[in-house]
Write a structure and sequence with these properties.
The chain is an alpha+beta fold and 345 residues long. 19% of the residues lie in helices and 29% in strands. It has helices spanning 2-15, 36-47, 54-62, 81-91, 295-312, and strands at residues 93-101, 107-116, 122-125, 136-144, 150-160, 165-170, 189-194, 202-213, 225-229, 241-243, 249-260, 285-294, 341-344. The radius of gyration is 21 Å and the shape is globular.
């Protein structure tokens, strides 16, 4: 009897020896200086002269080279949460800098998020993600795909600081593009897979909270359009896609906003750098809001680039497949001010 009981206990223990299902990755915390394998691959591209110098990249951010893009059609079949996670993991990319540090004279990587819009390497991310790190002596913007391959950024298709959106061209890979869905409303489900504060592969669920227009500045009403969602993110998450129930992108991570009881309306703090811990929440914090650049703004930027490219090269146009109904999209609250003191994520 004792032998049988011991056998049962051992079988039960072995059945629970793994906490995760088969195929689920065990995530490692991101090194602040970069993974050795990524540094080695980026170093090979640098030695081969395949990486674009930062000065040239900044010129292209100011004066992009538009392309005629074909965007994937919106998906309409709902997915279970694990399927959304798998889709997000398969399609994910990181966008960031491979750079020589002014402090230690070593090469580092400095990644945030992004997502592919086309199979041949059009990548969307935040405009603030493509800005060089403060301690960079020499550097190159690169894209890291889901399989760990490093791709050089070869062009900038469109960029808007007011919308916090940048469309890049990455070379040498085949990507899993995500459709853009601008037909969403408060209460719709929202999912995000990102690397907040260096914690790789953090997947969270929330919902669309509201659409509003960011106050201040010289942005037009369309440029100021933002969306709050209740998924989790932090510095290091910027540019990561926010997905709906069908796996379409409804926006991407832009900022976080800590609201205090005695805050001054519209007062903004300096952006927090990528992959760096933020300061503790201010005394009297009432709520933390997560602000995203909506997919409508990404689509508009892509369509504007396509229209410009077609006008410049009428014989080579392929057309932009919007893949949705007319972008009446969400019903933003006109003139509704953004709340909180944004910390860039």
């Amino acid at each position: 009897m004792k032998i049988i009981l011991l056998a049962v206990l051992m079988a039960g223990a072995s059945g629970f020896s793994h906490a995760q299902a088969p195929g689920v990755p065990i995530e490692d915390r991101t090194s602040q200086t970069g993974h050795e394998a990524v540094l080695a691959k980026a170093g090979v591209l640098r030695e081969e002269g395949k990486l674009m110098p930062s000065a040239r990249l900044m010129e292209l951010v100011k004066s992009p080279v538009p392309e005629d893009l074909t965007l994937p059609a919106v998906k309409t079949d709902p997915l279970a949460r694990p399927a959304i996670y798998e889709l997000a993991r398969r399609s994910r990319v990181r966008v960031g800098w491979y750079y020589l540090c002014t402090s230690c004279q070593n090469w580092h990587t400095h990644f945030a998020g992004g997502y592919p819009l086309t199979q041949d390497g059009v990548i969307a991310t935040c405009e603030h993600v493509v800005q060089p790190p403060a301690k960079m002596k020499e550097g190159f913007l690169i894209v890291l795909d889901a399989e760990g391959n490093v791709h050089p950024v070869t062009s900038v298709i469109a960029a808007s600081a007011t919308r916090d959106i940048c469309l890049l061209r990455a070379a040498g890979g085949t990507f899993h593009p995500l459709p853009l869905n601008d037909q969403v409303r408060p209460g719709d489900a929202a999912y995000c897979l990102s690397d907040p504060l260096g914690n790789d592969g953090y997947f969270s669920e929330g919902m669309v909270n509201r659409f509003y227009r960011k106050p201040g500045g010289k942005a037009s009403p369309e440029e100021a359009l933002r969306v709050n969602v209740s998924t989790d993110w932090a510095p290091g998450s910027s540019g990561s896609p926010i997905l709906d129930q069908c796996g379409n992108v409804i926006g991407h991570v832009s900022t976080i906003s800590a609201m205090t009881a005695n805050r001054q309306e519209g007062r903004e703090k300096e952006p927090a750098p990528e992959n760096k811990p933020t300061r503790s929440a201010p005394p009297g914090t009432q709520i933390v809001l997560h602000e995203a650049s909506p997919s409508r703004s990404v689509r508009q930027l892509a369509e504007q680039a396509a229209q410009t490219a077609r006008a410049q090269n009428p014989d080579q146009s392929s057309g932009t497949d919007a893949g949705t109904t007319e972008p009446d999209g969400p019903a933003p609250a006109p003139g509704s001010p953004a709340s909180g003191d944004p910390d860039q994520s």
